[in-house]
Structure formats: C-alpha cells, structure tokens
Amino acid sequence: MSALLEVSGVSKSFDGFKAINNLSFAIAERELRAIIGPNGAGKTTFMDIVTGKTRPDSGEVRWGENSRSLLRMSEAQIARAGIGRKFQRPTVFEDQSVEANLIMALKAPRGPFAVLRWRPSAGSRARVQDLAAEVGLAGQIRRKAGELSHGQKQWLEIGMLLAQEPRLLLVDEPAAGMTLAEREQTTTLLKRLAETRAVVVVEHDMEFVRRLNCKVTVLHQGSLLAEGSLDHVSANPDVIEVYLGR
Length: 246
Ligand SMILES: Nc1ncnc2c1ncn2[C@@H]1O[C@H](COP(=O)(O)OP(=O)(O)OP(=O)(O)O)[C@@H](O)[C@H]1O
Hints:
ATP-binding, ATP binding, four-stranded antiparallel β-sheet, Rossmann fold, binds adenosine-5'-triphosphate, ABC_transptr_urea_ATP-bd_UrtD, alpha/beta, Urea ABC transporter ATP-binding protein UrtD, transport
C-alpha cells in the first residue's frame, strides 16, 4: 500500500541543536498511529513540519497519491489538502453553542462576498447534527461550549476539524487533563475515526496508547528509535533505557 504521508530524511536544527535528525517514516491511508518519546524528542517539531509551521533544513515530506511535496505549500494550503491538527489545549468559541462552533467550522465558500452572503442551509444543519453525533455531543448541541467539560471541549474541537473532512488528523496529547471515562471515550472515538481517515496521536499516557492498540513510533533526539506494536517497542532495550524505564 502506498503511503499517505511520507517523511524522508528530514532534519531541523534550532541554533545548532538538532530537534529532528534524519527522520524517516510513513503513515498509510486510514492508519491509526501513536507517536511516543521523552520530552524534547521532536514530536511537536515533527507535527510543525508536516503542517507547514516549521520548514526543515533538509529532507522531504510527501503527501497523497501524487506524492506532492508539502514543503512547497503554505500552512493554509496544507490544511486545505486534508491535514487537520488538534492542538493540546481546546480552542473552541466558549461563548457560542456547540452547534454554532460546528457551523463555523463547516467548509463554506471562501471568497469575501460569498462568505458575507453564506447562511447555514438545512443541509449544513444536518451535517452539524452528524458531526456532533460522531464526537458524542448530540445531546449537547444547544449548550455553550464554555459549559462543556474539558473532554467534551476536546471532542468538539475534533468535530470542528472533521467538518473540514481531513484525510489525516494529527492529535496532540488528547488524554491530558481528561477523566478516566473521557480517556476511554476518546480512544473509542479515535479508533472509529481512523476507520475512514488516518489518525496520528502524540501521547505520553501509556495506558491510553495501549488502548489505542495500534502501531507505535518511538522518537528520541529527533530520530526514530523503534517502531511496532506497544508490546514490541516496550521490550526494546533502547526504548526502556531512554523512555519507559525511567
Ligand atoms: N522554535 C524553537 N527554537 C528553539 N528550540 C526549539 C524550538 N522548537 C523546539 N525546540 C527544541 O527542539 C527540541 C524538540 O522539541 P519538541 O517540542 O519537538 O519535542 P517534543 O517531543 O514535542 O517534547 P514534549 O514531549 O516535551 O512536548 C527541544 O529540545 C526543544 O527545546
């Protein structure tokens, strides 16, 4: 199977410090992947490079069936090409309802006049209902986002990203700050989402990663240290030394 995202030989230094060091790996279509690694391993920098926020010094990042280089695209072009990113902290519009947040996130006409004239249609309201249901918020649609629990806000933001129909969703530390029940619901959600798109989850919480039950990539000092099932990488002496055993 050809890769959806292919990172080859990517390096990035900040003031001479190699945050990413000759990193290569690939994500397949509709794959669920966890990325783990100690603090400073380069996980955030990797996501910054894929989304166009940071430009690497060398290497290549290719996307889709035409192996298009993401390095020649702006952040907005990359987002439009189908890569959505969920940051660690939820950034929803707290004063607005769940429904209004989702309506704002829908793919709407983008020209300045088209945006001014655009009103949510019956079709887009139905789509909003579907999105709310998909992230477990069907019963909360009229509530203000600010009244939701931390976990519900995270799901709302995932719903807002889904409105853009991404082919790859990058999710940064979703478990942080969630209750156990919310973490369990989030693993179920991410697994389901990965049935129809690729989902890459950066996470420190090993119980959460175990429940994802997917291939794991371990980063260390900006390079790939190990890859495979969680049991496989957990048994790797290098991984135990730099990460799990500490
Ligand atoms: N803009 C920057 N300027 C200077 N150094 C940076 C910059 N961004 C990242 N770094 C450094 O690059 C290294 C990798 O950082 P990165 O944030 O990618 O790691 P991480 O794996 O996401 O860590 P954490 O688990 O703590 O979030 C760190 O040593 C960090 O200090």
